[in-house]
Write a structure and sequence with these properties.
de novo design (two linked rop proteins), NUDIX hydrolase, hydrolase activity, hydrolase, LemA-like_dom_sf
């Protein structure tokens, strides 16, 4: 009988140790998700700044970028729309950020990339690459967190508390002209 008590105590201690370790791991994964989200939002904000620079260049009619000094109404309207969408994306609530960023990507795709200055082409490509990488890191962190949180023992013991699982961030990474329509 004493052997069964000892085995029971050992089993309870093992389950408690596993639960403690799993809860800590889940907490670390949630911190990873939060940090990845901050990096993603920083990358998206940087892209918005570059998009506004593209819009400003379109309005200024920089001859070196291929625009005429007297900007026609279509180009000016595209530039205003681009700047407005970039502002909206930056101020969007986290739940609406995906749609706002997709609108920026679509509007950017409707502009003529051959008429941008070389410096802005490089800057925009860099910003989009950083967004792509940050989105992938974030979605990887979300996947790992959700995978652990959805295991039956973790749910049964409520090791994740009452927190809702993080959501994936899906946006169009790079839109080529003609794809936005």
């Amino acid at each position: 009988m004493a052997t069964w008590i000892v085995l029971g105590v050992v089993a309870v201690l093992l389950v408690m140790g596993w639960a403690y370790h799993t809860a800590n791991r889940l907490d670390r994964l949630n911190v990873r998700v939060d940090l990845a989200r901050q990096a993603l939002e920083s990358s998206l904000d940087r892209r918005a700044v570059v998009v506004r620079a593209v819009a400003a260049e379109m309005i200024a009619g920089d001859g070196g970028a291929g625009y005429r000094k007297s900007v026609d109404d279509d180009v000016a309207a595209q530039a205003r729309e681009l700047a407005l969408l970039a502002d909206r994306a930056e101020r969007a609530a986290p739940s609406a950020r995906e749609d706002a960023e997709n609108a920026v990507s679509a509007a950017l795709a409707r502009t003529d990339p051959n008429r941008r200055s070389a410096a802005l082409v490089v800057e925009l490509a860099d910003a989009e690459t950083r967004v792509m990488m940050a989105r992938r890191f974030y979605n990887d962190a979300v996947r790992d967190t959700r995978a652990l949180a959805q295991r039956r023992p973790v749910r049964w013991l409520r090791l994740g508390g009452h927190a809702t699982p993080p959501e994936y961030f899906e946006i169009i990474e790079r839109v080529t002209p003609g794809q936005a329509d």
